[in-house]
Amino acid sequence: MSLDPGALPVEAPAASGETLAQVDLFALGRRASAARDERLGRRGSFVRARQLLVGGTWRGPRDAAESYADESDLDGLGGLDVARAAGVHTLIATRVSPVARAAADGGLRVVVRVPFRAGEADAERLARLAEIDAAPFAIWGALPSPAGEPYGLDTLKLFALSRLSLPRVPHLLADAGALGPRLAQMAFGFGADELFAPIVAERALRLGANANNPALTRKEAVMLIRGGGLVACERVGSGALEEVNP
Known about the structure:
Helix content is 33%, strand content 23%. It is of the alpha/beta class. It has a single domain (14-201, 230-243), classed as TIM Barrel (Alpha-Beta Barrel), CATH 3.20.20.70. Strands 3-2-4-5-6-7-8-9 form an eight-stranded mixed sheet. It has a three-stranded mixed sheet with strand order 1-12-13. The chain is globular and about 50 Å long.
């Protein structure tokens, strides 16, 4: 059964009169996945992107399809206009802020981080999500970002709540570097639709100093998305999706 993403606002009762925070975790995951599928189809995506760093240098492949900057780096970059002039397409915003609004008004894609910490109350998270949903500008995506170590079931609930509480935000990103590849993959079963990670042509084995390397090869990204039960697609060029053939 399909679910209208707008049918379960944060404060509205879900089935049997309970609120979203009271719904069983796996039932919540099914609802979140249904909301994603109704809006986007049963597809998961990734993109080869590069990041503009403080000092004006780039991290990532030169032939990347997209480029982004983090709001926390804008002062060191010289401001939003400088980042846009350098070729940035997307702003990773730290919150719903005047800078994020200026980016959206200027034609940039805005992804807002959703900070969370293991063990915090659902009410705190829902209030945070309500602020994002009420933003007076278009937000392209939400990026759950853990403070400290992310715990599995706790993190997955946050993803489901994010999908169901943000009907105006089309995309929910799973950060493979912050969550780890396996937990990021599991997030696809709780409403996520895009894998956020450096995509590289080749990667050394995760051993020794390279143990925490967040980079994924294109093949690894495809395998994670398919393992999460979705059709793997790559965003290319102007953001169009291309299905990756097996």
